[in-house]
Amino acid sequence: MLASAAMPSRDDAPSHRFLRACLRLPVDRTPVWMMRQAGRYLPQYRAVRATTSFLGLCKNPELACEVTMQPINEFGFDAAILFSDILIPVEAMGVPLEFGDEGPKLEPLRDRAAIARLIDPDPEATMPFVPEAVRCIKRALDGRVPLIGFAGAPFTLAAYAVEGSGSKEWRRAKALLFSDPVAGHDLLERFTRTVCRYLEAQVAAGADAVQIFDSWAGTLSPADFDEFALRWARELISRLRASPAFAARRVPIIYFANGCAPYLGRLASSGADVLGIDWRVDLGEARARLGSEVAVQGNLDPAALFAPPSEIERRVEGVIRSAGDAPGHIFNLGHGVQPETNPEHVRAMVAAVHRYGVRTAQP
Amino acid sequence: MLASAAMPSRDDAPSHRFLRACLRLPVDRTPVWMMRQAGRYLPQYRAVRATTSFLGLCKNPELACEVTMQPINEFGFDAAILFSDILIPVEAMGVPLEFGDEGPKLEPLRDRAAIARLIDPDPEATMPFVPEAVRCIKRALDGRVPLIGFAGAPFTLAAYAVEGSGSKEWRRAKALLFSDPVAGHDLLERFTRTVCRYLEAQVAAGADAVQIFDSWAGTLSPADFDEFALRWARELISRLRASPAFAARRVPIIYFANGCAPYLGRLASSGADVLGIDWRVDLGEARARLGSEVAVQGNLDPAALFAPPSEIERRVEGVIRSAGDAPGHIFNLGHGVQPETNPEHVRAMVAAVHRYGVRTAQP
Q: Interface pTM (ipTM) of the complex?
């Protein structure tokens, strides 16, 4: 039996519906949160963001806490998620990073020498603003809902670090991995180590669950996904399970590989408690293929929020019906909310989850 | 039995290995061509392109013929594909179109009135350069290899026409389809009608097969794929089958929905002879799920061409092994070749297909 399949004993079972759903325990109603829920679609976020740069916001614990709390106060989501960026630990490893209008720019790592120069950062020393933000948010939440910490998956961080920016084709990143897999795996191991310490620091500071974002894993062929993405995500999850911070509180781990349809059969072995499922997969089919030992999170098309509220309601009901009434479904979008989204349509989505969300039967 | 499953009698069976593979007839060796094989990665293409604009090249039959022939002469591909652009018929419907550094820009169709103003173009009258290019290429090929005509699928053309450009999220296109499906289906029907006549004109001019590109269908949830993409691709294919030009020569139809992994089970019913499969699917798994009544085309990751020739060879062998030795596999990339690709690496790919391509057994 996988570690992820172990059920906590009744005594230490969490009481919040989000954490309970992560562990496939019965809940009173399907929990709901939204990727990028603290973000540009919210006027109150844009007001804070107008006072500082994006990285400045990530590195200011009080402001990060403020924007993290905004969607909780506005919509009553069932979980908060730390406001930060997946590239923060890459910068801490010694890779210069900036954010412009076209997204992140990094000094690209293109060879073994550049990889060898990376440092192994101590999160509390090099990224103190992250655990500090976690502590600040936990105080602000005061037990209302759990807090999700997060990090990028090793493959996705390596893709950014080699490419030097976002990309559609990831030509340079794939060229390195395909041409020099020894250097590629060395780089992936470096990111695995750093992300492990980084997530341990978030949990030690109070994060109740963590999500690992493999945003670009869906650009890989199935064989390359196995070799370069899943292998290292599994290694990361396995190390996290073994760490005292995670074991002490049975912290759920969510793995979200965007574009996961081709790899569903393989994902069951990731070791995660929850798999994030993007909107291009039918949740019922996903659950049938994944089996009952893992929870799922998703998966409304973010573009559905541009439809009228009645259509949003119809589509929310469809996602919930497709997920079925076995325990272990967390409602979410299938990807991050788009900046142009009308907040009232987010409210309509949450209301529809409250209306159609299911009280799960005992497994 | 589907129309697409009908096998031609021995007497009218084609002799070229590409057409034979399309119809799942035995071949002497796996055929190979490459999406965007006439394109920017070739110095001789860039030399022609330097003399005219992209649209100017599409609309000049002699130049379109010249660049179509370049990869045939350079690499000995087993099929030529018309040089053109999927948005040509959209322009002929009355939508202003231009190409800049950031790709196509169209005057966006955002409401029912704009859709009602579209015209139904007669291809020979409004796009005479397309059938003329087909005739010119057929003369230049002189029977060496077959010529593939092509068009965009109704959904993909509708997505461009509503969005007004390429997009990652297709927010406006989806907003129209989700908010006003009646107008959406009206638009999709208009494109289906135009594309049908457009492909008939290409076949009447001499095209030996056609490929329908549903480049953006992979951005849809499975239910939306059924409703907005597959439904109209199937309708288009059904109308093409019924048209005299297609029936007279048993012209194979290839349907390529990029990002098709979530929809594999549904694609078997498209009515196409061949399904294009992108690189994020294992071809063996695709064939197992699609059944034996349809051929497959694909699916090397285009980024694999940035690896050294020995690694390209290993990956080509993997694709061919995964496809197996049942008739009906056409080797291709899983998406268009990237402009930065080294032509010598394309040569290595073709050599590897020649080396590992299989003589197919009788079905």
A: 0.93
